[in-house]
Amino acid sequence: MNKLQIVSLLLLGACGTHSAGTSAAAVDLPFERQLLAAAKTYREWSRVSDQANWAPTMCRIPPAAGVRRSDSSDADTHGRKLYFLFAKDAASYRGLWDFERQTKDEQAAAVRALQGQVLVKQSWHPVEVDRASVPELRPQAPGGREHPEEFAVDGDRAFRTGQQADLFVMLKLDPQTPGTDQGWVYGTLTPDGSRVTASGRLQSCMECHVDAPRDRLFGPMPPRTK
Questions:
Q1: Distances in whole angstroms, Cα of residue 41 to Cα of each of 11, 34, 77, 164
Q2: Quick one: which of 221, 82, 222 has its CA closest to 147?
Q3: ∠ Cα 122 72 96 (to 5°)
Q4: What radius of gyration, in Å, describes the C-alpha atoms of the chain?
Q5: pLDDT < 70 positions in the chain
Q6: Which of 7, 10, 166, 222, CA to CA, is 20 to 30 A from 95?
Q7: What is the CATH number of domain 31-209?
Q8: Distance in angstroms (rounded) separating the CA atoms of residues 32 and 200
Q9: Which residues pair with residue 87 across a beta bridge?
Q10: What is the pLDDT of residues 14-36, one digit of tens each?
Q11: What is the pLDDT of residues 89-102, one digit of tens each?
């Protein structure tokens, strides 16, 4: 075998090794296809978060439209961010507000109805602004907003949405689906929704949502009345 043949064989071996490595790197994350689809279409869904207020718990959200502040202090999950919440099936999400008062059969039916549900939390880095600069609205009907939707007010302090942060997604499959939390899949994506950064049974998500009273969900709160 001459030197040219030996060099050719070495190059072919190197190419083969590179191809195998590329193939391994291209393996999808768990449920990546569904999460990317949600990130692509969620802006077409109903936004089910309420006016700009401090959320009492991480995902407990009234049923109108506006920005919320996450209660989590963990900056690596939802913490220290404002967010809007979108639901693929807004009716079934809002219908959970009286879940605790339902019979066991009604609760079981409500949980079954969640199969196929997808929730996308669109998070934003908060920017503090002068409280006096926040416009005051005068809602004419129950559930109306007190401030423009991009603002969150807490006493004498006010914040607005700044740079968009990550997307947080929950989607519900059959509870028997392997690799899920009783059917729930958790996922995080880049702000533009183009890349899944983590997915499946995410411990940081499950630590909170496993104790949620409505099949891993905290919200929504009851409709407000005047």
A1: 44, 11, 22, 17
A2: 82
A3: 65
A4: 22
A5: 1-28, 50-80, 138-144, 221-226
A6: 166
A7: 3.50.70
A8: 9
A9: 46, 119
A10: 333 333 333 334 456 889 999 99
A11: 999 998 898 999 99
DSSP string covering the chain: --HHHHHHHHHHHHHHHHHHHHHHHTPPPTTHHHHHHHHHHGGGSEE---SSEE-SSTT---SS-S-EE-----TTTTTT-EEEEEESSHHHHHGGGGGGGS-HHHHHHHHHHTTT-EEEEEEEEEEEE-GGGSPPP--SSTT--SS-TTEEEETTEEEEEEEEEEEEEEEE--TT-TTSBTTEEEEEE-TTS--EEEEES-HHHHHHHTT-TBTTB--PPPPP--
Given a contact cutoff of 8 angstroms between Cβ atoms, the answer to whether 60 and 219 are in contact is yes
Write down the residue that tokens 């496993």 correspond to: 210
Burial of 190 (0-12, 13-18, 19+ CB in 10 A): middle
197 touches 190 (CB < 8 A): yes
What would the two tokens of residue 191 be?
A: 């702000």
Count of CB atoms situated within 10 Å of the CB of 102? 14
